[in-house]
């Protein structure tokens, strides 16, 4: 087993388990397993345990690139599409383009309600408790990586934040770890892993929970 985070990985060994039944925060997992690792991970790192040997798991750097035309296309799509189910007056603050491989390009777009835009712009690129983040797989079509956990309410005010945390390969297959949560409360959090080796992102792991 391998535990991996940005800039770090270690072999992991199971060291006992415990029940989650009495925990206030529920994630749908009845029993959790403690893992022992050889070296300490970075503080507050987003980590994922992979059922593969360390020499089969490799981090892939996320290289930020610039393309003003593509950034404009993404912003226009986010403002105009109904597929993301956003507030109609949402404001695009910033879009980052992240190159993962010669054929895979990702984007993260930070959004804000218009009344909060001025305050949020002063806090970029980290955002704050009232922002929204839209991670997309960029190609001939723009694929929403939060599609499976995004609110289905019309013009939802449950701002979904979080974003892309880590890209890595398992025996050559490209995977992406991302986290999502609602800014307004601890009512919802999610951990997602997508397999990006095919023409479309395939959700291979989803864990959701809340109070």
Would you mind describing this structure in some detail?
With 211 residues, the protein is mainly β. Helices cover 9% and strands 45% of the residues. It contains 2 helices and 14 strands. The strands form 3 sheets. Strands 5-11-12-13-14 form a 5-stranded antiparallel beta sheet, with no helix packed on it. The chain has a 5-stranded antiparallel beta sheet with strand order 6-7-8-9-10. It has a 4-stranded antiparallel beta sheet with strand order 3-2-1-4, with no helix packed on it. The longest helix is centred in the middle third of the chain and has 13 residues. The radius of gyration is 18 Å and the shape is globular. The mean pLDDT is 84.
Between the first and last Cα atoms, what is the distance in angstroms? 30 Å
Number of helices: 2
Class per helix and strand makeup = mainly beta
| Strand proportion | 35-45%
- Can you write the helix and strand succession as a string? EEEEEEHEEHEEEEEE
Look at the structure and give the mean pLDDT.
84
Overall 3D shape: globular
Q: Can you count the beta strands? A: 14
For the largest beta-sheet, the strand count, sense and barrel status come to:
5 strands, antiparallel
Unreliable stretches covering 5 or more consecutive residues: none
Helix content: under 10%
Radius of gyration using CA atoms only: 18 Å
Q: Give the strand order of the largest sheet, numbering strands 1, 2, ... along the chain.
A: 5-11-12-13-14
